[in-house]
Each structure stands twice: as structure tokens, then as C-alpha cells.
Amino acid sequence: MERFLRNKSSWFLLCGVLVISVVAIKYGSNLQCSQCSHALCARPNAVSSQIKVRPAQTNPLSARKKVPSARTITRCTVRRKNVAFLKVHKCGSTTMSNILHRFALRYDLNVILPNKNNTSNFWILGALDNKIHERIIPVTPGQNYNILAVETFFDKRIFQTLIPNNPFILGILREPVERQASYVLYHKDVRTKLENQLKTDPYIFRTYPSSAPHMLRDYNFYARKWRMGNFIEKMDNEFDMIMLTEYFDESLILLKRKLCWAFKDIVYMTLNKNLKNTGYAISPADRDKILNTYKNDSLFYEHYKGIFFGEMSKNGVGFLHELNQFKLVLKLVRDYCTYVKKGDNSLIIPKSSWNERFRVDPNECRLMKLTEFPLVQLLQERQRNLYAASSQK
Ligand SMILES: *[C@@H]1O[C@H](CO)[C@@H](O)[C@H](O)[C@H]1NC(C)=O
Ligand SMILES: *[C@@H]1O[C@H](CO)[C@@H](O)[C@H](O)[C@H]1NC(C)=O
Ligand SMILES: *[C@@H]1O[C@H](CO)[C@@H](O)[C@H](O)[C@H]1NC(C)=O
């Protein structure tokens, strides 16, 4: 050792090691910060802190080998509760509405709903204007609306008037050809004819012309003479996030991270899904034809797909671990909810690196399985009762 210290080059070596250690510590802490770079850390109303998570050995869902990227996860403490969602036709948005509406029930939130009594289109809010307050079920005086997830057209200014406390503006898009196929297969009158045709010819677009409304119509693109480039720039500024139907679970994980939500807030059963959307084919020429008819939708979709992929990759490999865990939780919830009966015990989902322990009860399953009409009706009744109770005081 003495000889080592007397040697000049040993001192250089020691200093070098010291410098490298300091740099490594600094760089290491930067790495931690960059793990925290997704939106929730930047949001003023989403408080977050870093918590070291020790894997719980007794827990079957987290008893796997320690995952390096999961050692430090961002755990936030304040859930964002104000969300305005643009429901877009044939994009899996009924499932998303169901998630948001159950969220409202879970945390006692106020929901924006058309003030119609079981009449035609009672679930549709429609076009928004400055008199929209007269057409929705009133909110308890002194309170605000929190959730918008019924059918309407996009108007950020009015979305913000309806939900005054910094709502998270959420949209959804779907790959145009898949969306078109889903549309054609979904419509009952077309389906019957189609089923006969499919016996001899799987190419569904050989005889059936495309006819779904454009996604951009729901985004209000056609209300004015927008140029695509300008419109995209505007939407980039106005939306906090645009989900993709093809990446629904990935979208939910991203959303969970941005809003500081939990797995219990994003579990779902697929609703409104076509039962028979297999056994068909689309030729390359038909594909091109559809993409050409929906040129603006395609451009719009490609733009947001790029943004979405960028965000996913920024979240690193930890994102994939969380996604994988979520898919497992979804399977447990589906297996339970598909066969559950009233009065059965709750399903317990154990704690993992990405979620606290939580339970799913038969009533949550019932809500999860409700389609749009009965769920909107249930919420309309609830929102009316909340208002009536407040005005009796
Ligand atoms: C719906 O019904 C409630 C009572 O059942 C009534 O107070 C309200 O005015 C009705 N609304 C409309 C739009 O008809
Ligand atoms: C609404 O109307 C439909 C048919 O018009 C009926 O089947 C349903 O029971 C009604 N629901 C309520 C809550 O009144
Ligand atoms: C696409 O948008 C442009 C305006 O940017 C419009 O002139 C054109 O008609 C639209 N195309 C389709 C297929 O809707």
C-alpha cells in the first residue's frame, strides 16, 4: 500500500477514480430526473415524489426477479380529476367513456350530461355553443363539473368553460382502414348482407363503399376552412393527449402516468366490440382507396401516431414492464367479471411496483359491462338527484 501511495501514477489513478465517481453520481441523479420527465412531474397540480420500491416477496404478482428499471418509480400523490374527452365515432371511445364515467362515480365527481329524459339521442350532447349550460343537467351550486365523456364536437374554449379547473383535454384516433372495416362490420343492415357475401368472398370492400363519418368531423375540422398544417398545429396546442385505438392499453398507461391515476382507474372490459370482425380481408387496392378517401384523417392519424410513439419511447423500458403488469391485471379482472354473480366475494389485486392493492367488486363489474345507454341513464339520474338534493337545502 505504502509503495502504491508513493508512486505518482497511483495518485493520478486515485484522483481519476474520485472524479469519475462524482460525475457518475451527478449523472445518476440526472437519470432519475429524466425518469420523471413525463408530464405529471411538470404539472403544478400533480405532486410527485420518488419512492424506492422494494419488491414484496409474498406477492405472486410482484415476486418476480427484481426489474432494474422498476427500482425507482415515480409515485405521485394527487390524482387529476378534471378530464374532457372527445368521443370519436368508431374509435373504441365507448370503452374510454365507460372508464371515465366510472372514475366519476368512484370519486364523487360531477359529470356533464345532456338534459334529456329517455328521448331520442338522450346520450348525445351534440354541437356546443354559448348556451350549452341550458342543455345540460345543472350542477350543485358552488361546485363544478369534472368529467365530459359524452358525444359532442370539439371546442376547447367551451370545454374549458364547462370544466373551469384546468381540464385535461383528451382525444382518440384510429387507423383509418381498420376503422372503416369496423364501421362496415358493425352496421346491422350491412352485416346481414355481408355475412352472406363473406361465405364466398372475404374481400369486404369489393362491394361495400366506405361510409363512416370522418374522424376529423368530430374534431371540428370541417366547421371552417382549415388548412391541414394549421389545424394540426392548433390541435397540438389544444390537446394534452391523443390516444390510439390500436394501442389502447399503451394509451391507458401513458394516461395513468400523466394524470397520476392507478390501475383501478383504468381497468376495463371491451365494450361495443364487433363479435365477428374476423374472416374478412382487404385488398391493397381497397386499402389505398380508403386511405385516399380519408386522406385528411390519415394525415392527422399519422401525425399523432408519431407523437404517441415518441412519448412511449421517452418513458423507457419501465413502460413495457408496467404495460405487461397491467395486461395481467386486466386478465384477472376479465376472468372475474365475466363470471361474477351478485353477492360474490371481491377480487383482490395485490400490490405491485405499479399499483397499490385494490379490490374489484361485483358492482364494479356490473358498471364495467354497462353499454353507453344504460350508463348514461344511470348517470343522468344521479346528477339530477345530486342537484335536487342541493336545492332542497
Ligand atoms: C326530465 O324529468 C324531470 C323529472 O322527472 C323533470 O324535472 C325535467 O324537467 C325533465 N326534463 C326534460 C328536458 O324534459
Ligand atoms: C326508456 O325508453 C325505452 C324505450 O323507449 C324503455 O325500454 C326504457 O325502459 C326506458 N327507460 C327509462 C329509465 O325510463
Ligand atoms: C381535406 O382538407 C382539405 C382542406 O385542408 C379540403 O380542401 C379537402 O376537401 C379535404 N379532403 C377530404 C377528402 O375531405
Automatic annotation (TrEMBL):
Gene Ontology annotations for the cellular component aspect, listed alphabetically: Golgi membrane
Signal peptide: 1-24
Bilayer topology term: Single-pass type II membrane protein
Protein name (database record): Uncharacterized protein
Keywords, ordered alphabetically: Glycoprotein, Golgi apparatus, Membrane, Signal, Signal-anchor, Transferase, Transmembrane, Transmembrane helix
Single GO MF descriptor: galactosylceramide sulfotransferase activity
Similarity comment: Belongs to the galactose-3-O-sulfotransferase family.
Gene3D superfamilies recorded: P-loop containing nucleotide triphosphate hydrolases (3.40.50.300)
Listed InterPro entries: Gal-3-0_sulfotransfrase (IPR009729), P-loop_NTPase (IPR027417)
Highest taxon, organism lineage: Eukaryota
Places the protein is found: Golgi apparatus membrane
Gene Ontology terms: biological process: glycolipid biosynthetic process
Primary residence: Golgi
Gene source species: Patella caerulea (Rayed Mediterranean limpet)
